[in-house]
Design brief:
Blueprint lengths: L1 H33 L6 E4 L4 E4 L4 E7 L6 E4 L13 E6 L2 E6 L8 E7 L1 H4 L9 E15 L4 E5 L4 E4 L1 E5 L3 E6 L2 E2 L8 E4 L2 E4 L8 E11 L2 E18 L7 E6 L4 E7 L1 E3 L3 E6 L2 E3 L5 E4 L3 E7 L7 E9 L2 E11 L10 E5 L4 E4 L17 E8 H7 L6 E6 L6 E3 L7 E10 L2 E2 L6 E4 L20 H34 L1
Keywords: Immunoglobulin domain, Repeat, Signal
GO biological process, one term: synapse organization
GO cellular component, one term: axon
Length: 489
């Protein structure tokens, strides 16, 4: 019995020791598997990094055993063999470097360095022979095929192109003349992948559209914007204040300017007609601008009175205006012409202006005045009024007219003519007026309605008030208060 128990205890002791041995062996085995080997693949730099398109990068792969051959694979598992170009490899000793001269969006993914198993040999086949890094590629915001000036046609749907590219994909918002645009299911504005559209554009849709792009990534955020000028192409239109038929007046021996205006996009071409014949610049004086044309007529005889037609035309349509040139009368020059006031840079002149209140006004009624003036010294050099300054004024009851921005201490010659619907009168006689010289401390001699209190006078009055008037007033007030107190008690 005793022998049986000893045998049993011995077996139990042996089994326990066997289990300990197995456990120790297992532990040692695990330690051997997790411990880093002396030779392994190393990537430098090893961390995951984000790059923008067109940036450069180099990643080196090395192995402790110089006899081991290394190679790189791209995200599509294709071996990199090129030693030159945008993406290539360079070998230096036991290091094989992967070079990106200009990173592209297609480079995103896992790039793997590996040891050539055939060249390595079975003795180290148990070692980790592959190591990868992840290339993250961001593409900054860019606007492709986006012109800063775009056009649309009136009454037709329009598309404003603003193709925004980037990775991560940017979010886009739109503004019109600085105000945000809102896109609804049934609204006039629709957001597109490469811009936006507007239903049936009108002239008021022309203006500045701003395409704003926002991009948010793990490394930060960015913002870019593009402003686009939208021009609406439309047929010519007369100004709202003009009618298709109007009257103009002139007199024999005088000159008249017939003006035709029409807004259009593209700008209209103007043509003039009289008696069903087209007028040309060879026989007539015609001045044309972007949206206006002027026919200048020297009325040598009464045969030039009659109907004139102006036509404005572009690729989208045309509009015409008829002007009846009627015979009027030449106004009389102003009967009054006198100086009312003067200072260093202004002449105040009275021409006896009286405004007519007839409705509609009579064609003979004076509606304004034209002044011509120039420095006497300048006139004496040329004896001509060609370089004179012209100032035009409308009639106002009892008004005098200020000729401003003149040179101090200068003698001017001045003349004036009245104006009615038919044109200008003869000039008045020429008169000489002189501006005052500039005075020290901002003072200037003045007369008439231009006269004003001078700063020196104001300063003296203020000092007198402090020194004399104010103490006197305080003294009087003090005595009155004293008298009132005595009377009360």
């Amino acid at each position: 019995m005793i022998t049986h128990n000893r045998i049993t205890m011995a077996r139990m002791h042996f089994g326990f020791n066997f289990l300990l041995l197995i456990a120790a062996t297992s532990i040692n085995g695990n330690q051997q598997k997790t411990a880093p080997p002396a030779d392994t693949l190393t990537l430098t730099p090893e961390e995951e990094m984000a790059h923008f398109v067109n940036q450069s990068r180099m990643v080196s792969c090395s192995y402790g055993n110089p006899d081991v051959k290394l190679r790189w694979r791209n995200p599509k598992n294709v071996l990199i063999s090129e030693t030159k170009g945008r993406v290539h490899i360079e070998e230096k000793g036991s290091t094989l470097s992967l070079i990106f001269e200009a990173i592209a969006r297609s480079d995103q993914g896992n790039w793997t360095c590996e040891a050539d198993a055939e060249a390595t040999g079975a003795s180290v086949a148990f070692l980790p022979l592959r190591k990868s890094f992840k290339m993250i590629v961001y593409e900054p915001i860019s606007f492709r095929d986006t012109s800063t000036v775009q056009t649309a046609v009136e009454d037709k749907d329009a598309t404003i192109r603003c193709e925004v590219k980037g990775h991560p994909e940017p979010s886009v918002s739109w503004y019109f003349n600085g105000q945000p645009l809102f896109f609804t299911n049934n609204g006039r504005y629709t957001k597109l992948a490469d811009g936006m559209s507007i239903k049936k554009v009108v002239q008021s849709d022309s203006g500045e559209y701003t395409c704003k792009a926002f991009q948010i990534s793990a490394t930060g955020s960015s913002f870019e914007e593009k402003t686009i000028r939208l021009n609406i192409k439309h047929k010519p239109y007369l100004p709202q204040w003009k009618t298709s038929v109007s009257d103009a007046y002139g007199y024999v021996g005088g000159m008249v300017n017939l003006t035709c205006e029409a807004t259009a996009e593209p700008p209209a071409n103007f043509s003039w007609w009289a008696n069903n014949k087209k007028l040309t610049s060879k026989s007539h004086i015609i001045h044309s601008g972007r949206h206006v044309s002027m026919l200048q007529i020297m009325i040598k005889s009464s045969s030039l009175f009659g109907k004139y037609k102006c036509e404005a035309k572009n690729e989208l349509g045309s509009v015409s205006q008829e002007i009846h040139l009627k015979e009027g009368s030449k106004p009389d020059p102003p009967s009054l012409f006198q100086l009312r006031g003067v200072n260093s840079d202004t002449l105040d002149i009275d021409v006896g202006a009286t405004k007519s209140h007839d409705t509609p006004p009579d064609p003979t009624t004076v509606i304004g005045y034209r002044f011509e003036l120039m420095a006497l010294d300048e006139y004496l050099k040329s004896r001509s009024w060609d370089l004179a300054s012209q100032r035009d004024f409308d009639v106002a009851d009892g008004a005098t007219y200020l000729l401003v921005q003149l040179i101090p201490d200068t003698k001017y010659i001045v003349r004036v003519a009245a104006r009615n619907a038919a044109g200008l009168s003869d000039w008045t006689e020429v008169k000489e007026f002189s501006t005052h010289p500039l005075q020290p401390h901002g003072t200037s001699g003045s007369s008439g309605p231009l006269a004003a209190a001078q700063p020196t006078d104001l300063c003296f009055k203020f000092l007198w008030l402090l020194a004399v008037a104010l103490p006197t007033a305080l003294s009087i007030t003090h005595h009155r208060l004293a008298d009132m107190a005595k009377a009360r008690f």
